[in-house]
Design a protein that fits this description.
Number of helices: 16
Radius of gyration: 28 Å
Shape: globular
Structural class: alpha+beta
Low-confidence stretches: none
Largest sheet: 6 strands, antiparallel
Mean pLDDT: 97
Distance between the termini: 77 Å
CATH superfamily of the largest domain: Glycosidases
CATH architecture of the largest domain: Alpha-Beta Barrel
Number of domains: 5
Strand content: 25-35%
Bound molecules: beta-D-mannopyranose
Number of strands: 46
Strand order of the largest sheet: 3-2-4-9-6-7
Length: 806
């Protein structure tokens, strides 16, 4: 049987002739931080101070002893090297690498001595390739399209430029005889009442194994099948009667089945077969299609899972750390569980990042999060010449096979914004006919997916209208990125269109206060203080934040805390406005993917969860607007409708209560509407005209309520709204037997709008279980605070913000 020996210990990193202890998996930056050679690049403006690290070459080494034992072959396997490296053993070159997204295997049978991995700076590698291929346009200044490495390492409009090098994934020795499993591709489908698992396997043999008779034995759900290996290939087919299917969360259970495949040496068939290698994975039975049939609105883009049409409630995922080797399986699970707890059911792994680690997809399988996987190409023209083309093909083949067992994986996507960029970002004149990546997205990648993973759909890009007949970002056809809002327009402009699928849209806000204090120690915080500006990477980011504020509020001057609160409120409102409108237009619109769930360092960005893992109010808002049931008041022409959105499997029969109120607390009019929203449907009911507040009235609003859900419609902009100064009481109620948990009970005496407890002000580790809350006079809310020991009501008050009256 094959033996596996991890090579995680005993590495050192050469730093100007002196060896530093090195972590494997890890990277140069983390080793230099641990050794005290460089400061934490996330703090203050240290990013600039550590820039030299990415421009140097680095060497990792460790002794490699001769493993004992009688195996015929010993392979040295790197699961991932970042990025351009030469590997030597005892001075002999084993090979060279130039792709972070691949693994590498070297035959080291009989060798021992000093193992060295010499990394060339990613800049030198990229520039050398640029010299070969010629220059190509890029939305960013750094040369990431000339090297197969996580693009956002080179800086993004939310990310620092921290160009890593290192052994970023595990290394091991594999010792084996006769043969080993080189590649296993499970094609898992389900038809009628039967699950089918087709295991396509390829083996590698030693010289003496060349003529051995081999077989492959597989078991799934107690069914065992053995098939002969012919040449170097075999297909084992297993039918599982009446399997339980895998569903996205909210649609059913996430049933997973263990598959075990054993490669056997059957020799002449007289003796007991000898196991040589084992492959184990979990699979799930489910079908997925993307319905892209043209219709009267254009061309749809609807996920159909197990025959059920789904409105996808998505978030975009970026690498959770700009030093990606720090993201542990536990951290993946925590972040993805947070997404699931916010009622997210789809995560798009964005193309400026990675094919994530197995732990990411394992967590998605278990949590029922559908995965949309971009191939790693983003925001640039990518040359298709060698040596890149061969690398792209190799990495795509490897990762398609690595990820295809996961039932959560729903779709492969060719790239992020490159088809759009070609059409709209003035690339064509500069390219003058040069390759720019189209051959990957419309040729190579779909061929690879069709060949290796034919059970899954492929889309050429995000955004993409399906063909060059329509503009790549045409909202009526396929996927759309909605960036006019934020860049130029107010968020109310989301309501002007109903794209078929919104794969990106978002609004910025600063991170939590405790995150800022940790990242910018000693800084007197202001929107334009040096650290705040350094941790704002977007083009005119603060200008856009302020213009976003100005349209609704008076921009607070000299009051950072108020600015911080209001920008976070605007972010939450902006994203909620988009989602409420687009969900209310199901099934024409079949999904929203918020830009973005997470951050890779502390920064002002579009994220719902900041770089230190703290929630912005947007996070809590996602939980509300992505819930199965949502009630929302929507303008429709010059009327208002109440949209009753029911994404659950059960009908929602309810009574919607509509009240026209004055800001000082009187009910002017009331009406009740009976609604019967069938499973997974939206019902839109016109609001009776007499209930709609007088046009732009500064003293009136409408509230719709049903089954504990609520939606508000204020006729006037916040700035113009008149309401009394908010008054409320705060009481603390201990939660028995629950550690540092305490309930904060807020009782409103007036209208209290968008009340927020910034728990991290009470203690950096404290959290609140709710975000923005609006209370009518006399109403009460309970907000659970976790992690703020010895809290008093007075201290709690200092962490509470809400809209001021006027
Ligand atoms: C989208 C993304 C990213 C970017 C974001 C915010 O276009 O694909 O490239 O970070 O917008 O500008």
């Amino acid at each position: 049987m094959k033996d596996v020996i991890p090579l995680t210990e005993g590495w050192s990193l050469d730093h100007d002739g002196s060896p530093l202890p090195a972590r494997v998996p890890g990277c140069v930056h983390t080793d230099l931080i641990d050794a005290g050679v460089i400061p934490d690049p996330f703090i203050g403006e240290n990013e600039r101070e550590v820039a030299w690290v990415g421009r140097r070459d680095w060497t990792y080494s460790r002794p490699l002893g001769l493993p004992t034992g009688t195996h015929e072959r010993t392979d040295l396997v790197f699961e991932g090297l970042d990025t351009a490296a030469q590997i030597t053993l005892d001075g002999t070159v084993l090979g060279r690498t130039r792709n972070m997204h691949r693994s590498h295997r070297f035959d080291v049978t009989g060798s021992s001595g000093e193992l060295r991995v010499l990394f060339t700076s990613a800049y030198s590698e990229a520039e050398a390739v640029r010299a070969l291929t010629g220059d190509r346009p890029n939305a960013y200044p750094e040369p990431f399209q000339y090297i197969r490495k996580m693009a956002c390492n080179f800086g993004w409009d939310w990310g620092p430029t921290v160009v890593t090098a290192g052994i970023w994934k595990p290394v091991r020795l594999e010792r084996w005889s006769t043969a080993r499993l080189d590649r296993v591709r499970p094609l898992v489908t389900v038809t009628d009442d039967t699950g089918h698992v087709e295991l396509h396997l390829e083996v590698e043999r030693t010289e003496s194994g060349a003529s051995r008779s081999l077989a492959a034995r597989a078991t799934v759900a107690g069914v065992e099948v053995t098939a002969p290996v012919e040449g170097d290939r075999a297909v084992v087919v297993i039918d599982v009667p009446q399997p339980e299917v895998w569903w996205p969360r909210g649609y059913g259970e996430q049933r997973l089945y263990d598959v075990e495949l054993t490669l056997l040496d059957v020799a002449d068939g007289t003796a007991e077969p000898l196991p040589l290698d084992i492959w184990r994975h979990r699979v799930g039975f489910r079908t997925v299609e993307l319905d892209r049939t043209p219709d009267e609105h254009g061309t749809g883009f609807t996920f159909v899972v197990n025959g059920v049409r789904v409105f996808a409630r998505g978030v975009n995922w970026i690498p959770d750390d700009v030093l990606p080797s720090r993201v542990t399986p536990e951290r993946y699970r925590e972040r993805l569980a947070q997404a699931a707890a916010a009622n997210v059911d789809l995560v798009r792994v964005w193309g400026g990042g990675l094919y994530e680690s197995d732990a990411f997809y394992d967590a998605c399988d278990e949590l029922g999060l559908m995965v949309w996987q971009d191939f790693p190409f983003a925001c640039a023209a990518y040359p298709e010449e060698q040596p890149l083309r061969g690398e792209v093909e190799a990495e795509a083949r490897e990762n398609v096979v690595r990820l295809m067992p996961h039932p959560s994986l729903m779709v492969w996507n060719g790239n992020n914004e490159n088809l759009w960029g070609f059409r709209d970002w003035d690339w064509e004149p500069g390219l003058a006919g040069d390759s720019w990546g189209e051959g990957y997205y419309l040729g190579l990648l779909p061929r690879i997916v069709a060949e290796l993973d034919p059970t899954r759909p492929y889309t050429a890009g995000s955004p993409w209208s399906g063909s060059w007949d329509h503009h790549p970002n045409d909202p009526a056809h396929g996927t759309h990125h909605s960036w006019e809002v934020w860049n130029r327009l107010d968020y109310t402009a989301y309501r002007a269109s109903v794209p078929r699928f919104v794969a990106e849209f978002g609004w910025q806000a600063p991170p939590a206060i405790a995150t800022l204090r940790r990242a910018l120690p000693g800084e007197e915080l202001a929107p334009d203080s040096p650290g705040m500006l350094h941790h704002q990477k977007a083009d005119d980011g603060n200008g856009k934040l302020d213009r976003g504020l100005e349209r609704h509020f008076t921009v607070p001057v000299g009051d950072f805390d108020r600015w911080h609160y209001l920008t976070q409120v605007v972010q939450a409102r902006a994203v909620a406005t988009g989602i409420e409108h687009w969900r209310a237009n199901w099934p024409v619109c079949a999904g929203t993917i918020v830009w973005q769930l997470n951050d890779c360092w502390p920064v002002s960005s579009w994220a719902a969860i900041d770089g230190d893992g703290r929630f912005k109010p947007l996070y809590h808002e996602l939980r509300r607007v992505y819930a199965d049931r949502l009630l929302t008041l929507q303008p429709e022409g010059d009327r208002l409708v109440v949209a009753v959105i029911n994404q659950s499997a059960a009908a929602w029969r309810t009574e919607v209560v509509l009240r026209r109120l004055t800001t000082d607390g009187q009910t002017l009019l009331e009406a009740r509407l009976d609604v019967d929203a069938a499973a997974r449907t939206v019902v839109r009911l016109p609001v009776p005209l007499h209930l709609v507040p007088t046009d732009r009235s500064p003293e009136e609003y409408l509230v719709a309520e049903a089954d504990g859900l609520r939606s508000f419609h204020f006729a006037a902009a916040d700035r113009d709204l008149h309401h009394p100064r908010p008054r409320y009481d705060v009481q603390l109620r201990p939660v028995s037997g629950a550690g540092d948990k305490v309930d904060l009970v807020v009782t409103a005496h007036t209208l209290v709008r968008d009340l927020l407890v910034q728990a991290d002000r009470l203690s950096p580790d404290a959290s609140a279980d709710r975000g923005l809350v609006t209370l009518l006079p006399g109403e009460q809310v309970r907000i659970r605070i976790d992690g703020a020991p010895r809290l008093t009501a007075d201290r709690a008050r200092e962490a509470i913000f809400c809209m001021e009256g006027s």
